[in-house]
Amino acid sequence: MIKNNQRMLNKAQVCMDAGIIGATYFFSWYLRFKSGLFVQDAGVLPAKTYFSALFLIIPGYLLLYSIFQLYMPRRVKSYRKELMDIIRANGIGFMIFILVLYFIKQEHFSRQMLCIFFFINISLEFASRYLIRTILWKMRKQGLNQKHILMIGESQMAEQYMDRLRENPKWGYQVFAHLKDEEKLERILEGNELDEVVIALRAKDYGKLERIVDVCEKAGVHTKMIPDFGNVISTRPYIEDVQGIPVIHVRRVPLNIMRNRVAKRAVDLIGATVAIILFSPVMLLTVLVVALTEEGSVIYRQERVGLHNQVFYMYKFRSMIMQDEEKEKAEWSTRNDPRITPVGKLIRRTSIDELPQLFNVLKGEMSLVGPRPERPQFVQKFRDEIPRYMVKHQVRPGMTGWAQINGYRGDTSIEKRIEYDLYYIENWTMVFDMKILILTIFKGFFDGR
Q: Cα separation of 449 and 440, whole Å?
């Protein structure tokens, strides 16, 4: 029944999408050419030319929605993920259409109309899915549109999975039974109509896995598996297909992908160059003030551990009194550290002391955004005390990071800082970097620290 309902829902969604695309396209055409909101240019194409394009646009967009899995079951899919998939599909559709117009040398086809269509279509597609999901969630909370599942295994992950299902009745999952082993499995599958079997064996019981899967597939029931490696594998592992052999990467690191690294490095180079130009008056003034009021060098170099555990010198404006190097290495700076100079308090409070790190970014030792680098002696200490601490060195360290804008900077919890760093590493996107940079302006430079 659930499978039939899902197929019907998918067909209804496809029809709704086709209708939305057609209606949005017509409305965009009306706004551009008939509403009086836009100046009419010479060489306007006839309406027939615009509407004939729908014979390619509608099936093309539906195909893109299918490629981006917008017709897959989305009981546990977040609104944010669905919106991003809609934006990606529409963005690719927009670019393909522009390229087609370029190659057929159709310069009079209104790009303004296509831009209007792009934004309105995304809004309506998301709104339609939001409405459908809201209705379904209300139905599921009332006990309708349920999926009945059978749990097999007694791993810790099995309990956590069932807790999630109980906490989210809107997903519509009902645990029919929870078996510790496979003894009653065949009899239960024969006597009941189940939608899914979820296998959550302990690692030591994996010898039974092949038989359990064989029984489930003979019964024709959809089968899923929760591996008992939750304390080892990240929450978003990357599965690589090596000529038919599934290889699970312990941790998903988007910046291991070449195109992502190149894009991030390009933003770093452009951003650091622009920032150096913009902040050059501030940096020159700081150089003069520090040189006139304090002893020692204006720029302070400190060893830090960066990408692939490589040691580099991180630059700062001097904000502390001159001290013995070995003594300085052994001490951790605190909020009201007595070693901080009067000028140092000001430049630390506004994070001006960090600006020389823009040159570390240009040299490729740091990034604008990333986990903050630590001194070698503390890295040696934390690597043995804090699980997964060294994972942060799989990406370039940053001038600011997800941990810092969430309050974990300076003399704060290292464990929480690593938790936020790992989240950043596993969930990196260019948009995420932009968000951190924007928040840094308010929470980093002007947070009164």
A: 13
Query: Domain range for residue 174?
Result: 147-232
**pLDDT, position 270:** 94
Nearest CA to 43 out of 110, 104, 102 is that of: 110
DSSP-assigned letter for residue 205: G
Q: DSSP label at 179? A: E
Same domain, 169 and 197: yes
Together in a domain, 388 and 288: yes
357 strand-pairing partners:
none
> What DSSP string runs through 46-68?
PHHHHHHTHHHHHHHHHHHHHHT
CA distance 310 to 300: 19
Token pair of 225, please?
């598996």
Sign of the Cα torsion 338, 344, 347, 348 reads negative
State the DSSP code for 414. Answer: H
130-135 contacts at long range (C-beta below 8 A, 24 or more positions apart): 130/79, 132/9, 132/13, 133/74, 133/79
Domain tally, the chain: 3
DSSP 340: B
CA distance 73 to 161: 18
| Length of the chain in terms of residues written | 449
How much is the pLDDT for 264?
Answer: 94
Res. 303: pLDDT tops 60 = yes
In order, the DSSP letters of 224-280 are EE--S-TTTS-SS-EEEEETTEEEEESS--GGGSHHHHHHHHHHHHHHHHHHHHHHH
What is the DSSP-derived secondary structure letter of residue 2? H
Distance CA 109, CA 11 (A): 32
Tens of pLDDT, residues 195-217: 889 998 888 888 888 888 888 88
User: Does residue 325 carry a pLDDT above 80?
Assistant: no
Closest to 294 in 3D by CA, of 273, 320, 272, 269:
320
Residues 303 and 359 in one domain: yes
Tell me the whole-structure pTM to 2 decimals.
0.62
**Token reading at 355:** 């600006």
CB 194 within 8 A of CB 1: no
User: What six digits make up the tokens of 95?
Assistant: 């670019």
For residue 281 the two structure tokens come to 């008056």
SS3 320: strand
